[in-house]
Amino acid sequence: GAASMAMQMLTKGSSQHTEAELAEELDLYAISLSGYSSSDSAAVVASCLTEHLERTLGLMSEVARTPTFSEDEFEKLRAQTRAELALQSAEPSYIASRELDRKLFGQHPYSRTSTGELEDVDALAIADLRSWWQQFVRPDMAVLILAGDVDQVRAMEAVRKILGDWQAEGPRPEIELPDFPESTPTHILLVNRPGSVQSQIRVGQLGFSRKDPAYFTSVLVSD
Questions:
Q1: Higher pLDDT, 191 or 76
Q2: C-alpha pair distances (Å), 136 with each of 111, 128, 141, 172
């Protein structure tokens, strides 16, 4: 859950704006700005009127490069995340999807949700978020995508002006992942929740990775 919490914290204060000041700036210019992470990636996403392109890129650069990771804001976010997870973890749909992932992926990170479980959120400290950010938020591991009412010349000028001096520090982190478990024979798993009036059914098996030549064919067939 460190990556998920860290990306959400990026808009909770930076070197130039407190959380309240940043919220006011975004509201004043009708800019949308947020951070999130998934099992495979993390991103800062923004949208704005074309006339505010440079301002928006500046704010994106600011929150990505100089977040403050305030202890107070972290505790607020932790409380909010705990409340959301407490509600989700009681839902049969969440339990069914969680158990399917655990059975399919075993000890691989794909068996876990990107937000983590309640015990993971409780175990996090602000230092964990800072450590993750220092390791993984760096320009040599990022892709910048612009789409909309802006031509390439203006876009590149703005990017060079605002992000051109961002340099990576130190070597890129090495990420070692365990192998996926072998497929197992079909079996039925029952998760009993006394008092529940709803049933959820999941059927799954390990499939192709994106590196497999048959991946895109399998996607078309599945649709």
A1: 76
A2: 21, 12, 7, 8
